[in-house]
Amino acid sequence: MNGIGGLMIRLIYSSSLTKDQTPAQIEQYLGDCREYNRAHKLCGLIVRIDRNLLSVREGPEEMLRLYIDWLQDQPACHSLIVLASHQIQEPMFRALRLAYIEARLGMDLEHPKSDLLAQVLSMSAKDADQDYTLRAIKEFLHGKWHHRAPAHNQAKFMRR
Questions:
Q1: pLDDT tens for each residue of 38-76
Q2: Residue 89 in contact with residue 1, Cβ under 8 Å?
Q3: Sign of the dihedral defined by the CA atoms of residues 110, 104, 17, 23, in that order
Q4: CATH topology for 8-159?
Q5: Best CA proximity match to 133, nearest among 104, 78, 74, 90
Q6: What pLDDT is attached to residue 153?
Q7: How far is residue 13's CA from residue 83's CA, in Å, rounded to a whole number?
Q8: Which one of 33, 83, 88, 154 is separated from 21 by 20 to 30 angstroms, measured CA to CA?
Q9: What does the alpha-carbon distance between residue 66 and residue 45 come to, in Å, rounded to a whole number?
Q10: Rounded Cα gap, residues 2 and 79, in angstroms
């Protein structure tokens, strides 16, 4: 199944950056996430619109539990809402250690300028969980699952 035993999980969550980030800060955050993914055999993608993020991570269940603990210590994010956590047979995004898609509200989703976004939007779901994942990404691109930073900018974890 995943080469190391145990259950494979797909975790989908939304969050928000606590403040506007410079391109260098975004690259640092992505670098940290990619390194974490590499070390813990995770894969997935992040879609960003302004300060809002939608993340899909796939990998061994225990590694994703450790990832959530790690994420709680990241000062750049807050208001994490777990949209789904499903057992999977195989990752949808196996080839992507951590893809990053920067988008904007109101963009033309029929003709996206990003090749990676076009690739994700053209994927065909193989099961109900993949269908939910693709719908969550499209809903996010249409403005759903977005957050506003609270005054105190502290991380909050919620489950949908």
A1: 888 899 999 999 889 999 999 999 999 888 887 777 766
A2: yes
A3: positive
A4: Alpha-Beta Plaits (3.30.70)
A5: 90
A6: 45
A7: 5
A8: 83
A9: 18
A10: 30
Q: What are phi and psi of 21, to 5 degrees?
A: -110, 145
- Find residue 103's DSSP bridge partners: 49
The predicted structure's pLDDT at residue 152: 46
Q: Is the pTM for the entire model greater than 0.85?
A: no
* pLDDT tens sequence across 98-141: 899 999 888 888 888 888 999 898 999 999 999 999 999 999 99
Please state, in angstroms and rounded to a whole number, the distance separating the CA atoms of residues 33 and 46: 10
Q: Say how far apart CA 74 and CA 77 lie, in whole Å.
A: 6
| Closest-CA residue to 57 (of 102, 27, 30, 94) | 94
Contact 86, 10 (CB under 8 A): yes
CA–CA distances in Å: residue 63 to residues 58, 101, 160 = 9, 23, 21
For the chain, the straight-line distance linking the first and the last C-alpha, in angstroms and rounded, comes to 28
Higher pLDDT, 119 or 152: 119
Residue 147 scores a pLDDT above 50: yes
Other CB atoms within a 10 A radius of the CB of residue 108 amount to 7
Beta bridge partners of 11: 57, 85
